[in-house]
Amino acid sequence: MYMTKAEILPDKVFDKDVWNKLQNTYSIHQLVWSLFSKKPDDKRDFLYRYEFNRNVPTFYVVSKSIPANNLSYFNIDVKTYDPKINPGQHFLFSLRANPVVTKRDENGKQKRHDVVMDEKYRLQSEKLNSSKLPPISEIAHEKGLEWLNKKGLKNGFTFDWRNVRADGYQTHNFKKPKGSGQIKISTLDFDGMIQVTDMESFTNALFNGIGPAKSFGCGLMLVKPIR
């Protein structure tokens, strides 16, 4: 596996074409895809996280293959990614995820629901006065940590809820260029400290991600061991 830090080149930071590519979740996905010179119908074998690092658009990518040296947009730093993990080890972590819960609709079909909006609608269905509803940030923190706790049980880690933060809730609406329907996903940022409970499951989570919407910048857990 490989860990890549790909920064937009300084002379491209204010390029109109580059900024247009960074304004839409799907075009960002295509920009990262171009790092691997893949065909549209190829299977994705990478995870990525997009953020600003010192005001520079930056992508962190974990992949099975080495990125192409696409110098038209990026300054690329690639390293072999083989994290050393021990049972009980503690890590600082950062994760952008798409927390959802799956429920059956009136026709018996399973559908994914954003955990934050699902809880908000549940509270509203109880006919609570709007002034008594908790703020979205509070709902996001509570339901986000519940979701992460369940994921931790399956992915080999645990955490003290006092040592993890869930915030930065956002919704993203976009269309594929040739698609007819609107795509909507939500994201929540987690950071704090976790402890490894199962080495194999945790390593698999680092390589393959956590939760859905991995094609759109979700699921990559960035970790740093606590010495």
TrEMBL record:
Q: Which NCBIfam families match?
A: casE_Cse3 (TIGR01907)
Q: Which organism is it from?
A: Methanosalsum zhilinae (strain DSM 4017 / NBRC 107636 / OCM 62 / WeN5)
SUPFAM superfamilies, per this entry?
CRISPR-associated protein (SSF117987)
Which domain of life, per UniProt?
Archaea
Identify this protein by name: CRISPR-associated protein, Cse3 family
